[in-house]
Amino acid sequence: MKKAVIFIVAAVLMTAAGCEKKPKPTPEIPPQEDNELDKPFLTLAADDFTDIDVRLTLVDGQPPFEMDIVDFTGADLGSRLSPCKEIEYRNSYQFPEQDEGSDIYAGICKHETEGIVRASSMCGDKLYLLVDYDDLCGPFRSYGDTHCFSVYSYDIPTGETEELYSYSEPEEEMLVKGIAYADGAVYTISSRLIDVDKGTGAGTYHSSLLEIRNGVISEAEAFPYYCSDVTAHGDKLYIQCSDEKGTFRTEYDINTHESTVVYTTARNSRESLVVETDWYSIDTGLRGQLIGSDEHRAYVMCTDYYGTYSKNTLYTYDIDTGTRYISDITQYNGEPTPYRNGIIAMASVPYWYYIEPELGAVFPLTASQVDSRLQYDGDILYLPSVENNVRTYIKYDEESRKWVDNTDPAEPAERKIYCLK
Q1: Is 304 left (phi over 0), alpha (psi -120 to 50) or beta?
Q2: Fewest CB within 10 A of the end CB: N or C in the chain?
């Protein structure tokens, strides 16, 4: 194995990128030579690359691309009283942390909840929002369980909202994750345990890809395993899944209704990951997961465990130069997605960053939701950055030593989408 060690510090600050939409000139495409059209397929292995260890450095400057900002802070999402708060139902959802006779419990149950944005998707001038109204059960159960939610469209030029679907059931909660828009419909994921053993609590997951079209919700596809999110790119949906063997992503074709596993991260796998593309294959010699690839680069992430500590390493294969850049991205390993000459990833803060391994540069982009996913609108990648200031409806009064209604005005929740061009 060829080996070189270099520490790259990015010190050049990029010029500020504008937030206004600007017409982009049509690029001139140079004529391709015959040898460009007839590139041979490459069969590569780890020994075909020279390793360069790169120490990542946080850069205090603008990233090398422009970002537009869509601000929907003023979106009217209303407020509702989740049906599980009604006196005839709420005892069924009581937890040890909640005392039914306490002022806290009564205060939570008598107040409506302002809409909490759980997920967002964008297409053209429209945003599509998954909005939760259940603040009684949600905080104490698996994140995403709700008895009351709605799906909205938000028109960016006019600021108008339209409710596309509403769910409100006191006796049956839904675990809903993610939202995506494609082919005139909105999609979300619902997962639940079925055939539960009352003794052990074990069961079988049933996950549904739900399609909302013209105000009607239906099951577009069912999966016999846990699914946690859905995103869209063109006429394809990408669904995050897991089972007892590991985690994987399923590609669902809206036109053919066919599902294909895109990549797998197997637990305790001893097999070397082989990257297969239309232009090359790489036997990496690594037990990791493929983050993404194109004609010029492939990105693989490996996780090593040391007791309670884990380390995430990004391997960037530059096909044109025969270089493999090795970077420790332990603190930037959330939702890594290829973009331009690097990846977009989330830190645990949470905050989005752009990482360019060849330069060793890490550019801060924007704060993020804990559960947000990168989305595509055509070829534009965008980052949801949504605050949910869940209203505290009661507060402790020191003078009376009682919990009383909180009449203090709530700060508006900042909600933005950053579009990367």
Answers
A1: beta
A2: N
CB 248 within 8 A of CB 239: no
Query: Which amino acid is it at 382?
Result: Y
CB-CB contact of 331 with 377 (8 Å): no
Query: How many whole angstroms separate alpha carbon 271 and alpha carbon 274?
Result: 9
Residue 319: band (very low, low, confident or very high) from pLDDT cuts 50, 70, 90: very high
How many angstroms separate the CA atoms of 173 and 148, rounded? 8
Cβ-contact 48, 322 below 8 angstroms: yes
Q: Which residues pair with 67 in a beta bridge?
A: 420
Residue located via tokens 């302002």: 114
Label each residue of 249-262 as H, E or C. Answer: EEEEECCCCCEEEE
| Cα distance between residue 254 and residue 221, in whole Å | 10
Place of tokens 């049509």: 26
- Residue found by looking up tokens 């105000």 in the block: 215
- Amino acid residing at 257: H
Query: Percent of the chain beyond pLDDT 70?
Result: 73
Burial (0-12, 13-18, 19+ Cβ within 10 Å), 66: middle
pLDDT digits (tens, 9 = 90+) for 88-134: 887 766 554 444 445 566 667 888 888 888 888 888 889 999 998 88
pLDDT the model gives residue 154? 93
For the chain, the first-to-last Cα distance in angstroms comes to 38
Q: Which residues contact 372 (CB under 8 A, 6 or more apart)?
A: 119, 120, 335, 346, 350, 383, 384, 385, 386
How far apart CA 72 and CA 76 sit, in angstroms, is 9
What pTM was computed for the model?
A: 0.73
- pLDDT for 34: 46
What is the secondary structure of 148-215 as a DSSP string?
A: EEEEEEEETTT--EEEEEEEE-SS--EEEEEEEEETTEEEEEEEEEES--TTT---EEEEEEEEEETT
The string of pLDDT tens digits covering residues 372-412 is 567 666 667 777 777 665 555 556 667 777 666 666 666 66
Distances (CA, A) of 34 to 37, 39, 122: 5, 9, 39
Are the CB atoms for 73 and 415 separated by under 8 Å? yes
Identity of residue 342: G
Please classify residue 17 by burial: count the beta carbons closer than 10 Å to its beta carbon, then call 0-12 exposed, 13-18 middle and 19+ buried.
middle
Instruction: Output DSSP code: residue 129.
Output: E
